[in-house]
Design brief:
276 residues; alpha/beta; eight-stranded parallel barrel; 8 strands; 41% helix; 13% strand; binds 3-methyl-2-oxobutanoic acid
């Protein structure tokens, strides 16, 4: 069994190799992603949209995150599991962040957490890192602020906006983040920030120059059908496959094809005779 990947391993990968990251929200998918050799599994608050049926990530609670983090950590023995801090679980300050991250760490079993935001969450980041909790930053499009942003829109399209995001990323690096997610920014900006930082950048719609890539597994597998962001590449069409399998099951039950002898238990014939 390969050794478990740690936050320092990820930090040291910058410039050495590309880093892979995918989300997972439950035991079976965590096990598959882990066995495929993905470096980091993010239990994202995208849970809310991909699995729980919310319109966005805003309603996701700490209890929901802890529940899903513990399922994922039971399924992953190699990847570094990162737990997402849901909306309003850290904004009030360092103590708030410590209490929330402590739950993901102790009850959920994750070995790193992720916070959305720039320089305004640097104090929280610093407190977590000082307490021994590795932190992944997240700048560019920050979906927890979708109400203020006005939708899931590309960020940092002008040079001035790119410089502001770089300053945010630098503040997070200074506060102790071991990696930083760049979401929905132009590829040129992904390069600009990747070259300027000492810590790895993980892109999701951040272009090819980032040090690594992350996607939501339900997008990758074609399981999330409400909408598909431009940066998503679908590697499977599982919703169609599942629909076909379920329809076939329904038809076979209704027509009496299932269950057949192969899927039924037999009884000793002498015992069976005693039933009549
Ligand atoms: O919640 C999530 O899955 C994320 C990724 C989109 C990076 O934050």
């Amino acid at each position: 069994m390969a050794k478990r990947i740690t936050a320092p391993d990820i930090r040291a990968s910058k410039g050495q190799r590309k880093i892979t990251m995918l989300t997972a929200y439950d035991y079976p998918f965590a096990k598959i992603v882990d066995e495929a050799g993905i470096d980091m599994i993010l239990v994202g608050d995208s849970l809310g949209m991909a699995v729980l049926g919310y319109d966005d990530t805003i309603p996701v609670t700490m209890d929901e995150m802890v529940h899903h983090c513990s399922a994922v950590t039971r399924g992953a023995s190699h990847a570094l599991v990162v737990g997402d801090m849901p909306f309003l679980s850290y904004e009030a300050g360092p103590e708030h962040a410590l209490a929330s991250a402590g739950r993901l760490f102790k009850e959920g079993g994750v070995r790193a957490v992720k916070l959305e935001g720039g320089r305004e969450v640097a104090p929280q980041t610093k407190a977590l890192v000082q307490a021994g909790i590795p932190v992944v930053g997240h700048v560019g499009l920050t979906p927890q602020r979708v109400a203020g942003i006005g939708g899931f829109k590309v960020q940092g399209k002008t040079a001035d906006a790119a410089r502001i995001i770089l300053e945010d990323a630098k503040a997070l690096q200074e506060a102790g983040c071991f990696a930083i997610i760049l979401e929905a920014v132009p590829a040129a900006m992904g390069r600009y920030i990747t070259e300027a930082l000492e810590i790895p950048t993980i892109g999701i719609g951040g272009g090819a120059y980032c040090d690594g890539q992350v996607l939501v597994i339900h997008d990758v597998l074609g399981l999330f059908e409400r909408f598909t962001p431009k940066f998503v590449k679908k590697y499977a069409n599982m919703a169609a496959d599942v629909r076909e399998a379920v329809t076939q099951y329904k038809n076979e039950v209704e027509s009496g094809v299932f269950p057949d002898a192969e899927h039924s238990f037999s009884m000793d014939p002498d015992e069976e005779k005693k039933l009549s």
